[in-house]
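Project outcomes to date are best conveyed with an example. Our students and postdoctoral researchers have been running inverse folding experiments weekly, and each run begins with a structure described purely in tokens. The record below, which covers 583 residues, was selected by the lab manager from last quarter's runs and is presented without edits.
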């Protein structure tokens, strides 16, 4: 019995020792990243005995070091084993692992005072080399579990681990791979180091000069656009860094190019600014390419980009950009890359609330450990243009009962113009349907060509001009309908548009469209989609005058003759009286 108790005691001690041993092996790496979508993997590079408690005075120390289960030291990559590749590795002109013969000597180099940080150049270079020799056996790879605020990789034995995002897991997403993490495991928390590029798209409003995500213009106007890309805070971790701007223009926008239908690098301007608040930057002269192709894959004619064009601007390496003199440009993580170009609002423009859309997304390098690209969400800018509907009426035909005019005047003729900053008149040119095709400073053909279009009211007194910017215009009557007085002054018309993101989708829409005439009270258009404004122009009949050869003229002739005869009689009578007095 006494012997049985002794054996039982030994067994209990053994169970407790095993339990303590199991507990000691159950280490966890917590990765402090709240962004979902990552799949982290942990590879044991070194195994050994862990001592210490992780404090400054008693740090963790890995002793009796051997190669871990997560690395394949027999694998041949580029003709070399892992140890051979490490022995040839050069960092800042030195070969830190040249004399290493086994795992322990490699670990000793990594643990030296000059290299004992995860961000040291030697540690990063080591991670890049060892990542090529990781095991592909699933049972040797520990994978993370995500909760709402971080990731955890549990059940790890003591050792030195390389933690990385799973290959190809973030390609095409708006996220970046974490730079390799090296950790000596007990229970530790690692802060991943990753960052992404962003892009913004803006259009310049001509009335204010402000850059924003909406504007209004006339057909024929050239519209400035701006694309702004930021760079990741981890730019230094990349050997090269690629940016690709993919910018899609709707059919109503024609990219302004020196040669019609083709594009050259000089048709866009690329500028590097030191940071987002810088007012001056360096224009890029080389290091990027551009292309312009038709939008493909859209069969619905009502789709926003049906019939449009895609502008692609590719910078293969932002670190290799040169200025217009061919000198290298200093690009840092704080730098901002700005692309500007202009596009003309053409005759395919959509007027009203749908607007003429233009969107961009950015493809960017997102893997500092190798190849891979991320993709931002799209950012959109919209240009609006409007229609002016004019009705010519008889001023005496106003019906107080209906509150409207009953007689519409045909064949009234007008020209429409606006005044530029120097008060020069710019006259509208329209096609047969009233669509704006351009502007000219010549009113008549006698002044030059092209000259102003004549806007003529039809049998219902109407004419329309489609494709106008919000702003101030003047309608000048050049010919009144027969029997009516010509307007003595141009009619001042002010079109005002206001915008808001009514659907909370990040896209502004026209919330109201108003017009005022000769500085009168503005009234919101009744057009449901806020695309046009209505203006009524009143003409009054002229005063009735006798026509040439009519009775009025005859009366003048008769009265004139009588007056002449009376004057002759008076003259003769006075002459005779004078002679009689002399006698």
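After processing, the design step wrote out the following sequence:
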């Amino acid at each position: 019995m006494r012997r049985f108790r002794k054996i039982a005691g030994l067994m209990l001690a053994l169970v407790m020792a095993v339990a303590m041993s199991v507990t000691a092996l159950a280490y966890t790496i917590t990765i402090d990243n709240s962004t979902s979508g990552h799949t982290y993997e942990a590879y044991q590079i070194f195994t050994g005995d862990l001592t210490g408690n992780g404090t400054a005075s008693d740090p963790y120390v890995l002793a009796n070091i051997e190669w871990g289960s997560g690395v394949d030291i027999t694998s041949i990559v580029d003709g070399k084993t892992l140890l051979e590749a490490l022995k040839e590795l050069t960092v800042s002109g030195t070969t830190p692992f040249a004399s290493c013969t086994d795992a322990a000597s490699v670990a000793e180099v990594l643990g030296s005072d000059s290299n004992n940080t995860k961000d040291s150049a030697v540690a990063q270079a080591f991670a890049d080399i060892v990542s090529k020799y990781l095991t592909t056996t699933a049972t040797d790879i520990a994978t993370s579990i995500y909760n709402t605020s971080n990731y955890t990789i549990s059940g790890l034995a003591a050792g030195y681990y390389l933690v990385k995002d799973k290959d190809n897991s973030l390609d095409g997403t708006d996220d970046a791979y974490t730079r390799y993490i090296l950790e000596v495991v007990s229970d530790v928390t690692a802060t991943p180091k990753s960052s992404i590029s962003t892009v913004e798209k803006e259009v310049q409003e001509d009335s204010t000069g402000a850059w924003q995500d909406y504007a209004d213009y006339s057909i024929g106007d050239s519209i400035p656009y701006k694309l702004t890309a930021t760079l990741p805070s981890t730019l230094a971790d990349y050997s090269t860094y690629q940016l690709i701007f993919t910018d899609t223009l709707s059919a109503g926008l024609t990219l302004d190019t020196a040669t019609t239908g083709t594009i050259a690098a000089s048709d866009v301007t690329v500028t590097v600014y030191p940071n987002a608040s810088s007012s001056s930057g360096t224009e890029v002269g080389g290091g990027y390419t551009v292309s312009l192709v038709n939008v493909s894959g859209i069969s619905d004619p009502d789709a926003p980009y049906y019939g449009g064009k895609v502008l692609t601007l590719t910078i293969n390496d932002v670190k290799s950009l040169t200025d217009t003199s061919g000198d290298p440009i200093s690009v840092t993580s704080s730098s901002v890359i700005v692309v500007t170009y202009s596009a003309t609002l053409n005759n395919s423009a959509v007027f009203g609330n749908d607007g003429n859309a233009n969107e961009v997304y950015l493809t960017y390098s997102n893997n500092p450990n190798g190849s891979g690209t991320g993709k931002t969400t799209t950012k959109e800018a919209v240009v609006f243009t409007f229609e002016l509907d004019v009705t010519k009426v008889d001023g005496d035909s106003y019906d107080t009962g209906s509150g409207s005019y009953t007689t519409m005047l045909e064949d009234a003729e007008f020209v429409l113009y606006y005044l530029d900053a120097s008060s020069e008149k710019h006259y509208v040119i329209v096609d047969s349907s009233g669509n704006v095709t351009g502007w000219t400073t010549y009113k008549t053909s006698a002044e030059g060509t092209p000259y102003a279009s004549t806007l003529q009211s039809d049998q219902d007194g109407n004419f329309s001009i489609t494709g106008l910017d919000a702003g101030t215009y003047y309608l000048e009557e050049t010919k009144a309908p027969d029997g009516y007085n010509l307007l003595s002054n141009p009619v001042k018309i002010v079109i005002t548009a206001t915008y808001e993101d009514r659907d909370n989708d990040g896209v502004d829409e026209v919330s109201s469209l108003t017009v005022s005439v000769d500085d009168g009270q503005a009234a919101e258009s009744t057009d449901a989609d806020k695309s046009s404004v209505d203006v009524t122009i009143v003409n009054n009949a002229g005063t009735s005058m006798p026509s040439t050869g009519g009775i009025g003229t005859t009366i003048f002739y008769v009265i004139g003759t009588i007056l002449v005869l009376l004057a002759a009689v008076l003259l003769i009578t006075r002459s005779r009286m004078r002679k009689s007095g002399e006698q």
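Residues 1-24, 543-558 have pLDDT under 50 and may be disordered. The first helix runs from residue 2 to 25. The training component of this project remains on track.
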